[in-house]
Please model this.
Amino acid sequence: MVMMMAPGGTLEMAQAVLDEGADAVYVGVVGWSRRGAQDELDDDEIHRTIDYAAARGKEVRIVVNTLPSSTELPMFVERVERYAGWGAQGFMISDIGAMRLVKERLPHVNIHSSVGCGITNYEDVRFLREVGATYVVLPYRMSVDEIREIKEAGDVGIEVFLFKTPSGGKICPGKCNMSSYFSFRRWLDAQGKDHFFGSASRGGDCLRVCQTDWNFNVDDVDFRAPMTIKTNPALWLEELPDYLAAGVDCLKVPGRDRSTALVRDIVRVYRRAVDAILGADRPDLGVFASELETLRGRWMSERGKRDNRLLRQAIDESRRTVATTL
Amino acid sequence: MFELSTDVGNLKELREGDFSAYDALYLGDFSCPDYPNNFSSHAELLEPGLELVKSRGQKAYLRLYAVPGNADLGWVEDLIDTALELPFDALEVHNLGLLRMLRDKGCRLPIHLGVFGNLYTHETAKVLKEYGVTRVYPNPELSLDEVRYIADNAAVEVLVPVHGKIPLVISETCFILEHSEEGGECGDGSCSYQCTQEHWLKRGRSDGSRADWSLKDTGRMTLSGKDLCMVEHAATLAGMGLKHFYVHNKGEARGYASQVGRIYRDALKRAFAGEAAGDAAEPLATLAGLAREGLCNGYYFEGAGQRYFGRT
Model:
């Protein structure tokens, strides 16, 4: 049975998506999950989420998918052991070494290799399986055929996002440091945890520098109107039966950084859609078209506001620490 | 004492360029299999390239394609099979799937992890050593202290880029081709090698003055606009016990690697001999002249990648 997992960017959101029919909720730990603190939970909220899910027979995955400093790893392990002790059933991890440490200490928990691992082929998946992954999160761009090949290649759970970009293009997340190149700041908090403003890989926000207007020029001559560097992903539904037939084990609703109302409505629609697919040989997904279109519009609107806010932070920080030029 | 290396994409560049300042060369463009006569995608060119490097008394490392999809694994494996029959000094992998493939093939050559291998921790380095990795290129976001920690605690060689543009993001398809006036689909055979011209992404100010953000695009890879420059910090690097240094050459004009290499060989030689650094003004002026968008220190001192911290 495919598992539908939904985001808990706040405690309220975590509880709402479970109420709407998600089988599991994933929540990020402050400073450890590729998002700013406003979309992550503190320990008390995580504990309450685990208890809330357990009371309803549902599961919790903890997102600890930053690429930490070497010296942070003992703190990383201590936290993972704590959450597992509270009843979390799985962890989303990017760092290979961290993955190995968790597998050695907690062999019973599920390890989801994060999308930040930047998988491009089925040999990658075999590698991640060997070092401890029980699920692999595939990037937004993969075709149904590629997913089928990956599923056939290895005994590992396949997890996909319910949003995607066209195939090709710059590999993000997983292989991109553009944000921190322009705006980056490191500091230690009272517990000795590293924080890296401007680097999603290291626990700050990606400041969306790819989404500003860029001039593209050759030999100093602009040859295009200003443009963004990367295409944003969009919600999708039409290929869902093919994805399930290809062996997808876990569907991941995106949106930790969106509003609770929007994420709750997305879960509501996808829950019905998944149940329709699982309950019929040839489900009519056309009945969801209008709702999906509305959700796509709301998604884009909220994303635009967030992108603009983060971009302003990037520009301000970049100007604050303007380079000393020669 | 120390090793200084750089990269060369194909046989023509290898024959025509002056790489005498370097101890070792990374052969191939790991980002784009379509790059003309790329060592990383032309098995038939490996032997002549290797012979030329060896005849110059240098080490030769072969770079493998960084982001192979399922459909690429076949031709990459063929290239690996050819390479394993040749006396390369090491193979460089960025893709962990290919690393696993090398392990399964019983690869006896040393393996270097490339920049897109996403290495951040010594624990990851330890895991990769089990697969045959002997040298790692830490993610550019790491500070010098973090780099040294990995070297010390994983007992692995660490490659430290000292000059050149910083690889920031890699693409599965060609950004230049997809946004060109002619249009075209990357991989459909229509590549017209527009990457031979310099392409820049700039976020300009509304008054038209110099762009405040810039990036260089080589088609399948986006690089920092500024050139990483550590020539003022050679003594610091030597003092930290780091020994393997690298100049990023991909996307640069002919002659860049030669000029930069001579400056760094001199600076590093002095630093490792314990001699006082010479006057930095002249080499810095030369390096600044080669860097169209200026110099930076990357993330080595815990600031944004594009910042520059002078020694004084």
Observations:
- Chain A is about 40% helix and 15% strand.
- The two ends of chain A are 61 Å apart (CA to CA).
- Chain A has one domain: 3-174+232-292.
- Chain A touches chain B through 76 residues (CB under 8 Å).
